[in-house]
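Message: I would value a second opinion on how I read folds in token form. Give me a protein, with the fold worked out from its sequence. Write it directly below this note and I will take it from there.
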Amino acid sequence: MNLPILTETSHYLAIDKPAGLIVERNPWEPSAESLVFEYLSEKRGSPFLGIVHRLDRVTSGVLLLAKKKSALKELNRQFAEKQVRKTYLAIVEQAPS
């Protein structure tokens, strides 16, 4: 897998998604989901993989994916209840006016 894994547990993994890569699997191009699924399939047959949140194609950053249904449910709850803090950074050519 060409995506850097930032951390991996038995419940989830976090990857560094580059800009230009879509998150959800589709039949026309590679996606973060398809690349991670391929990586996990090499370890154990037909793994569960759930997308916890999304990042736009043009956005790079940390993407969290669940490896168990119970983990997906718990992580979704944490996002829904605003227990997860997100930080966004932007690189610009000049300060906004």
About this structure: The chain has one domain: 5-80. The longest strand covers residues 12-17. Strands lie at 5-8, 12-17, 50-51, 61-66.
